[in-house]
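Q: How would the structure tokens look for this protein?
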Amino acid sequence: MDMLRLLRADCLKIKRTPFLLTHLVVPIVISALYLAYYSYSPWDFKGKVMAYFQGIACGLPIIIGLVCAMASEQEANAGQFQVMLATTNRKMKTYVSKLLLLLLYSFGAIFLSIAIFSIGFIELLHEEDFSYSFYSMAACILFGSHVFIYILHLYVSLQFGKGASIGLGIVEALLVALLLTGLGDHIWPFLPYGWSGHFVSLWIIKSTGVNMALLETSMLTGIVCCLAGSVFAFILSCLWFEKWEGRRTK
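A: Here is the predicted structure in token form.
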């Protein structure tokens, strides 16, 4: 019950901030732009789908950096993080609630973007090679691949401020794009910035009926690293927050 109350309180805190609007407007605009371009683009079906999902994977770190910065600054402006730090008997729960809020909004934004794209792609552009279940699974893959990055950015934004979080997001976006080239072929399973783009690309390849035997080892390694890395990052962040005493904002 404490967690539900804390989560509800966090939702009320961001009610008058750009946080909710960002999670609504950005997915709609991105999907609409891709659909508008694909309405006359000469690309083949697979190329269009691959470009869309890889584009989302590259752009998400910047959005994550921005929204985590918003959440952190809201706490700073509301009382120098005292709301999060004052409740010593449930300090950990306030952190988990904040992280859970970010992940829930992320889940909704990713699904909203992909839902708009898939409906437009299938119903308006009549690109029916993939079913809605394919797009739903792709959304889950993108969401799960970014849990680690959300944990990292919440830590960075709380500890170092919004500038560090947004700046890191820009660098991460470049790393995601770089790892999608040949440079990331052998190292992507071990790097958080290689997970989303490669996982969703492999899902597209698998869904087109290509034999995945040669890619199974790297895919399984990536899944293990992603799960283990996310759990380990969560545990470390909780231990850090227990000892955290806030930061100077002025």
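Residues 2-243 form one domain.

The CA atoms of residues 14 and 74 lie 7 Å apart.

Upvote if useful.
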